[in-house]
Amino acid sequence: MQLDRYDRAILEVLQREGRISNQDLAERIGLSPSPCLRRVRALEESGLITGYRAVLDPKALGLTLMALIHISMDKHTPERFANFEARIEEIPNIIECLLITGQQADYQLKAVVEDMDAYQALLLNRITRIEGVSGVHSSFVMRRVVDRGVLPVG
Length: 154
Hints:
It contains five helices and four strands; from the N terminus they run H-H-H-E-H-E-E-H-E. With about 150 residues, the chain is α+β, with helices and mostly antiparallel strands. A hairpin with a 7-residue loop joins strand 2 and strand 3. It comes from Pseudazoarcus pumilus.
């Protein structure tokens, strides 16, 4: 899909303000409401816009500890990776799972938990019990420096 300046403007605004009304969005980008709505629907149908969601404050939910966890696997087979990924998807405290290269690990997980006791339980009772996990290295986030949550579209 070729994006023009209006499409890019729509994407910029919607990433930051997903609940903006079509009327306000149209005014902001300099289009009338009907063509603006058609463009938004086209961006959704093309798959560029994959959804809308509320952004929650983890601390307000009592999730005060964030960990980055590097996982090494014993075998590099599609079956081993598929099993690991399926098991990780079942754990709600894992908010991101990336298959990575360039490290001694195969995966990087981002987890949020209440405290160190909850992290220990997550690690020992769930993650290390997944078949094929041969190594774990954890780092704890002290402070978020950049957390944009938006992609550059310009």
